[in-house]
Design goal:
The protein has 308 residues and is an alpha/beta fold. The protein has 2 domains: 218 residues, Rossmann fold (3-Layer(aba) Sandwich); 65 residues, 2-Layer Sandwich (Alpha-Beta Plaits), CATH 3.30.70. The chain is 33% helix and 28% strand. It has 10 helices and 14 strands. The strands form 3 sheets. The protein has a 6-stranded mixed sheet, sandwiched between helices. Helix 3 runs parallel beside helix 5. The model has no long low-confidence stretch (mean pLDDT 89). GO terms for molecular function: ATP binding; ATP hydrolysis activity. It holds the Pfam family ABC_tran. This is ABC transporter ATP-binding protein. Keywords: ATP-binding, Nucleotide-binding, Transport.
């Protein structure tokens, strides 16, 4: 059974706007799912629905087999949320803020666990500081500590490293890696696509309230792994020579650019290079570039926009 099950979920607001349009998604225990999408795509609305902050208009959501509406408390006990917005009591001490979050979930005192969480997030030395004395990055760390205080089995990270320092990002991903080893399910929304590429097991793309794709990262990169062959010439070009027009080439910075499927039985590269030599062009260098996750993401969103 999946740890998070989302079936036919829609969220419709007064006035008719649909933030979620029939979302189906299953997230397995212990996996890291990166949810990518532009601003307004529905990422935060989906997380809010899973966490019980907003109620879906249609469909069902289960966390650990518990319906987030009918079995709200059981479902919510399993969930930790690091929101985008920093909303903390400014005059409270760091350690008390984290202790309070654990108490809200009815968990018994566990000072060893609180210390461990604060140390991993480099907050232990700041434990007796008031929140208002902290920098923006440190406040973000406190949000993460609060989310971990009640030992959740599912952790949502909603743009957790947006606008924060590189050191926090490094600490954050170390904590995420440790949680994954403990079997915690992690759902990450981010604009830093390189982070998703580095740590996610699967990648989902959402836009206009619809899931466009959910796939294992490695399989996605293979399946949509378009490569680009860049041919640097002795004499830079302004346009594709007439003799090479049948190859679908482009000219970029004076170089010839050829895009191909690296998994195809025939890439056409041999025929192209023979045609380049036959056209009397002198080749200075040849380089290939693998399509990135960002390229794939942008392409999927663009295709949905074109189809709309």
């Amino acid at each position: 059974m999946a740890m998070v099950e989302i079936d036919g979920v829609r969220k419709r607001y007064e006035g008719g706007f649909e933030a979620l349009r029939g979302v189906d998604l299953a997230i397995e225990e212990g996996e890291i799912l990166a949810l990518l999408g532009p601003n307004g795509a529905g990422k935060t609305t989906l997380i809010s629905a899973i966490c019980g902050i907003t109620l879906p208009t249609e469909g069902t959501i289960r966390v650990g087999g518990n319906d987030v509406v009918a079995d709200y408390r059981a479902a919510r006990d399993l969930v930790g949320l690091v929101p985008q917005e920093v909303n903390l009591e400014p005059f409270e001490k760091v350690i008390n803020t984290v202790r309070f979050s654990r108490g809200l979930f009815g968990k018994p005192k566990n000072e060893a666990l609180i210390e461990d969480v604060l140390r991993k997030l480099s907050l232990w030395d700041k434990r007796d500081n008031a929140i208002r004395e902290l920098s923006g990055g440190m406040k973000r760390r406190v949000l993460i500590a609060k989310a971990l205080a009640h030992e959740p089995r599912v952790l949502f990270l909603d743009e957790p490293t947006a606008g924060v320092d590189v050191e926090l990002r490094r600490d954050m991903w170390e904590v995420v890696a440790d949680l994954k080893r403990q079997g915690v399910t992690i759902i990450l929304t981010t604009h830093y696509i390189e982070e998703a590429e580095a740590i996610a097991d699967r990648v989902g793309v959402i836009n206009k309230g619809q899931i466009l794709l959910v796939e294992e990262k490695a399989a996605l990169m293979r399946r949509m792994g378009e490569k680009e062959l860049r041919i640097e010439l002795g004499t830079p070009l302004d346009a594709v020579p007439e003799a090479l027009e049948g190859f679908g080439l482009e000219v970029s910075g004076g170089d010839l650019v050829y895009r191909y499927d690296s998994h195809a039985e025939r890439t056409g590269i041999g025929r192209l290079m023979a045609a380049v030599a036959g056209a009397g062009l002198v080749v200075r260098d040849v380089a290939t570039v693998q399509k990135s996750l960002e390229d794939i993401f942008v392409g999927l969103v663009a295709r949905q926009e074109d189809a709309a």
